[in-house]
Amino acid sequence: MERYYEEDLERASREDMLALQNEKLVKQVKHVWDSVPYYRNLMEKKGVTPDDIKSVDDLHKLPLISKADLRDAYPYGLLGCDLKKCVRIQSTSGTTGKRVVAFYTQEDIDIWERCCARAITAAGGTDEDVCQVSYGYGLFTGGPGLNGGSHKVGCLTVPTSSGNTDRQIMFINDLQATILCCTPSYAAYLGERMKELGMGPDDIPLKAGIFGAEAWSEEMRQDIQNTLGIKAYDIYGLTEISGPGVSFECSEQTGMHINEDHFYPEVIDPDTEEVLPEGSEGELVFTCLDKEAFPLLRYRTRDICVLSREKCSCGRTLVKMKKPKGRSDDMLIIRGVNVFPSQIEAVLLNQGYPANYQIVVDRVNNTDTLDVQVEMTPEMFTDNLGEIEARQKSLVDGLKAMLGLKAHVTLVAPKTITRSEGKAVRVIDKRKI
Ligand code: DLL
Q: Which of 45, 147, 184, 270 is 20 to 30 A (C-alpha) from 332?
């Protein structure tokens, strides 16, 4: 039986949802106009005032904002309320440039945690469950977000944070954890370590996993589900909009329901900035409908995906987003061809390799080179050169068919590629250096 955390909102009729969104949007645009001079300025430049925005159909009139604006306005320039009302900051895990800091009032945190509670409930979580949160805690939103959601659902929450893998496994078993929250790459690593310790899927109590914060393929989902003996649910979010729980997967596992009563989604053409019709692939843009402290309107996520309003068997009416293909800024252009790391991952996993790989891009004599280092499983490991060459060739062929590009593939020994406890670093692009 499907469970909901806020059934009336998660299953609202289209008319009711639109009415709620319109009402919230009109209020929110006034709030931003009055309290965020940076955005008011952008609106004035575009010749728009709050009176022009009467419903979500008018949203396209508002200016888009991007990470560059957030950096310009760092740290307080986009604050939507008195700093005294804020109770928390979180920050992005980005490695380049200035960090982005997002502010929260208590009410903002409450909304965020309720969104995470919807995700945990959709994964089957109740107050009978033990929920181990192995996302990082601290400035990263993963740990605090799922921790709050788990409290709201009433699960016994185990805030292990990431790392110390053997202790994670000990707690899963000793405390009989039924739900695991972490990045998919860390879930895969936990599974690998369990195998080494001689544990199979039937030896552990887990039944569900809530995995996100990075792109992961359908093949990786199958792999994790088999190794851990669980159902693996995707969860999406970004610090600027709140954190995890902007959208979440249900039992159908065909995309994530967006909490559109709080975060209104649009898909735009990243080049022309035009809003695209439902079903088109493009850049996801969010408008926060009721956030007080960091009320971003039309924020460009740089995530490439597709929205769908097809009826879902779980009974939720919330619009769905397909698994994001990756960020537009993760997209590699190799010899003029667009390549997403997730496409390479799909080929490797399809041929039975684990999701331990590294992509190295370089430029030699003005030509881009694509090198994929792929780890073998202990079962595949061999010193038979002929067999290794045949395996490499099969991967080169698979990549050629997927990408239309010739890659160089090197098979490496098990455990040579560094494991990640948070978001995995898959790409080394030497061309930028
Ligand atoms: O990663 C929030 C989060 C924590 C989401 C835990 C899910 C679970 P940031 O560090 O700000 O926030 O990174 C946000 O990560 O724009 C996407 O590019 C990517 N991302 C997040 N979730 C997914 C997902 C957190 N399920 C950026 N699939 C986003 C693909 C994801 N990419």
A: 184
Sign of the CA dihedral with 229 first, then 233, 234, and 238 last = negative
CA neighbor of 262 nearest in space, from 74, 109, 89: 109
Checking phi first, is residue 324 left (phi over 0); if not, alpha (psi -120 to 50) or beta?
beta
* Residue tagged 């850049």 (tokens): 283
Give the number of the atom of ligand 1 that is nearest the alpha carbon of residue 100.
11
Which residues line the pocket of ligand 1, CB cutoff 6 A? 92-93, 135, 141-142, 212-215, 234-239, 243-244, 301, 303, 324, 327
Write the pLDDT tens digit of every residue in 57-100.
999 999 999 999 998 999 999 999 999 999 999 998 554 566 78
Ligand 1 site-directed mutation target among 91, 217, 236, 305, most atoms within 8 Å of CB? 236
Distance CA 349, CA 187 (A): 15
pLDDT tens-digit series, residues 158-214: 999 999 999 999 999 999 999 999 999 999 999 999 999 999 999 999 999 999 999
Is-contact 317 130, C-beta < 8 A?
no
- Look at residue 432 and tell me whether its pLDDT is greater than 70: no
Q: Which two tokens stand for residue 88?
A: 């928390």
Q: Ligand 1 centroid vs 137 CA: distance in angstroms?
A: 15
Ligand 1 center from residue 207 Cα (angstroms): 23
Q: Is 287 helix (H, G, I), strand (E, B) or coil?
A: strand
Atom of ligand 1 nearest to the CA of 235: 26
Distance of alpha carbon 16 from alpha carbon 412, whole angstroms: 55
CA angle 14–19–20, rounded 5-degree value: 100
Q: pTM of this prediction?
A: 0.91
* Residue that is written with structure tokens 């979500």 in the block: 56
DSSP string, 69-130: HHHHTTTTTT--S-GGGEEEEEE----SSSPPEEEEEHHHHHHHHHHHHHHHHHTT--TT-E
* Tokens encoding 188: 């895969």
Residue in 40, 44, 22 with CA at minimum distance from that of residue 31: 40
